[in-house]
Amino acid sequence: MTSQYLDLSLEIRGEQNEVAVIRLTRGAKRNALSDGLILAIRDTFQNLPDTVRAAVIDGEGEHFCAGLDLSELKERDAGQGMLHSRLWHSALECVQHGPVPVIAVLHGAVVGGGLELASAAHIRVADESTFYALPEGSRGIFVGGGGSVRIPKLIGASRMMDMMLTGRVYNAQDGEKLGFAQYLVPAGQAFEKAMELATRVAQNAPLTNYSLMHALPRIAEQSADHGFFTEALMSAIAQSAPEAKERVRAFLEGRAGKVQKS
Ligand code: 1HE
């Protein structure tokens, strides 16, 4: 199944239609995020078919995403700017706290709002052409798509501060070491790797994936005492699911795979 929004395509893949491939299709503008494209991202993640268990987000052409569509910025006053930022927040919330884990395919420019979008994904696979920057500093603006909350969690506030103050650009190798991406692959191979990971992620019990996406980041924000308590609740709910019981039984009866040395 495929469907087409403005500057975005959705394709459902896999034997059980379990992987959604969402692609920004505005390559001529380096996938710059117009209001229409942000709305398409929000609506797509809100309305994924029930069969979908994992999603891959990719960008057409040589660059993942050039960030905010700067051509739409010039007419906004302060009130509209606030609402615009809140629109981004709601759209990227649908990516981060939507129904399924999201794997971002990074290549070329991952800059400004493009980095904010990538930061809302759960796994980032970068290829060697990737570079990361926050040019907001030099454009006289600030991040507005949740970057000040999500990016310090990946690389720390001091590195984000440096990127914005000095215009520092990180290449793919350094970006992976810092924590922007969990995987680094040769140029042109990020989509294939992301599909391999999505297929694997889609095999997990849905409740386990949901627990990871929704509980783990919240526990990280809690005090240790509250975190232990939330963990115990989540653990009890996950293990009580019939699917968890069956998976454990399958291992004990020799029907499930062992953990293999990498
Ligand atoms: C754009 C945008 C854009 C390209 N808004 N139109 N983001 C930035 O400050 C990054 C700005 N973009 C760039 O630095 C470069 O375009 C790239 C490094 C990403 C790619 O370079 P290149 O040589 O491959 O492409 P190009 O020739 O610069 O761009 C091709 C076209 O895309 C060109 O339009 P054309 O009509 O002349 O063909 C560009 O104007 C257009 N284009 N990027 C609008 N961003 C929620 S707040 C988030 C705040 C931010 O994201 S600020 C950071 C914005």
From TrEMBL:
The lineage of its organism: Bacteria, Pseudomonadati, Pseudomonadota, Betaproteobacteria, Burkholderiales. The keyword Membrane does not apply. Keywords: Lyase. It holds the Pfam family ECH_1. It comes from Ottowia thiooxydans. This is Enoyl-CoA hydratase/carnithine racemase. Its EC number is 4.2.1.155. It is an enzyme of class 4 (lyase). Belongs to the enoyl-CoA hydratase/isomerase family. PANTHER family: ENOYL-COA HYDRATASE, MITOCHONDRIAL, ENOYL-COA HYDRATASE-RELATED. GO terms for molecular function: lyase activity.
